[in-house]
Design brief:
Length: 230
């Protein structure tokens, strides 16, 4: 559990810098690092005499920026630093807050934009789908439990084909992409209920999946292009 929390905390810290991967090599050159440091220091001044409150705020922001710079450029925190990071993080937020911060959410349009930057691994998606790999928080998904029984939910096999041949031909979904339909079905399952099936899929997966995990799950479902009966 400690490793899991640290992974989330470090991921959040890395995301704070917002540095694009392609820019890291240039940003990590000695001259670039010195320029960044001096720029941060010039704007976030530390006047502890006249404005202690603002100085403390700037000190905190400088620390976060400097940590992000170091992590982006390959610094590996030691055990003491990791322990301190964990203590600081959990003094302000709960584990549930950390998990939720990594979750993909339920805003389909925003998710589709995020997925443009993610490569889905269908094998990893299959493991998630079958509950063989944990989702956020360490729990497992219950997808296969329902979707391997046609009496309970539409079968996993043929998912891509059904979406392509049937769902997207329906008037309500003519403007949808294949990915949009799958994403909405996962994070907003009550948006469309397949005829002859009960509305029983839980509305929890937007809180249980990261963007990468959702990309993997969609990639797995895209591999299910078996022919439909009849």
């Amino acid at each position: 559990m400690r490793t899991f929390i640290l992974t989330i905390a470090l991921t959040l810290l890395l995301a704070a810098s917002g540095a694009a991967q392609d820019d890291l090599a240039d940003n990590c050159q000695a001259d670039a690092l010195a320029q960044q440091q001096s720029t941060f220091a010039a704007y976030l001044t530390l006047d502890f005499v006249d404005n202690v409150e603002q100085a403390l705020a700037n000190l905190f922001r400088l620390g976060a920026l400097y940590q992000s710079m170091a992590l982006d450029c390959g610094y590996q925190p030691n055990e003491v630093e990791l322990d301190r990071l964990l203590e600081q993080t959990l003094s302000f937020v709960t584990l549930d807050d950390l998990i939720l911060a990594q979750a993909v959410g339920i805003d389909v349009e925003a998710i589709l934009v995020e997925l443009e930057e993610a490569y889905g691994d269908p094998l990893q998606g299959q493991l998630l789908y079958n509950g063989l790999e944990p989702a956020l928080g360490g729990g497992t998904l219950g997808c296969a439990g329902c979707h391997e029984n046609e009496a309970v939910a539409p079968l996993t096999a043929g998912t891509w084909t059904r979406v392509h041949d049937i769902r997207l031909a329906m008037p309500a979904f003519t403007s949808y992409s294949h990915r949009q339909f799958l994403v909405e079905s996962i994070v907003q399952p009550m948006a469309y209920i397949t005829p002859d099936y009960a509305a029983m899929m839980p509305e929890i997966y937007g809180r249980q999946l990261t963007t990468q995990q959702l990309a993997d799950l969609v990639a797995f479902l895209d591999s299910q292009d078996q022919l439909l009966d009849g």
